[in-house]
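Reopening this ticket.

The earlier resolution said the output was attached, but the attachment link was broken on my side. Pasting everything inline this time so it's all in one place.
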Amino acid sequence: MRREFDRSLCHRSMSNSPYQPNPEAHKIANAIARGFFKTESDPESVRRAVRAWLLAIPPVVIFLPLAFYLRFGTVGPLGWGLTIFFVVYCLLSAIGLHFLVRPKYHTPVEIKNDWIDRIGAFWLVSCAFGPFFGWILASAFSLTTFNWWWLYLGRVILCIGVPLLTSFALLRYVRGHGAPLMLGLLIGVTALPVWSAWGTLLDLRSGPLRLEQNVWVLPRTQRVLQDP
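Inline output:
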């Protein structure tokens, strides 16, 4: 009788809690674990998967920059950018799987499936590929005194504007016991594309400096502008 009473009291306190885990979100998380990560959601399977993702980080840090250096003689922004991308990818995968079997850290907010969710769905995509396409936009073309502003503006939009916009759409899900972790991940991951284009933003704000006659340079990114 005492055990039944304790179980009933515990269930009642959980039902009255304002931070109940969302069962729909937990169902989606299980589907992602099986479909994308090819693992089960039991604690032992999740523990092995987390260990595998963490053990993948040292080879990425060592061999990917080394491959760029052996091939091109330098690692360069692309090599370091890809290294950071795969390290963050492994960390996010490990963190996501770790908290998969801890539903009390899941958001209690029910998924709305409205236009704000459609914007937020592109958050990770924009943080991962925004810097890449922004780098291509600013590096694939020769910068001139006429086109540099538009090319730099496009990179700032891809690397800063879109990641920030999509991250704001996810703030309404930062609730419950896992809110500090959610907010930390949201800020930390969004800061990476913002940091990648921070010098571009400063050059866009200050403009080029004139070194000599018909010679202009963007001081933060050290890009020389050509006359068209």
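Reporter confirms the inline version is readable. Residues 148 and 225 are 8 Å apart (CA to CA). Residues 1-19 have pLDDT under 50 and may be disordered.
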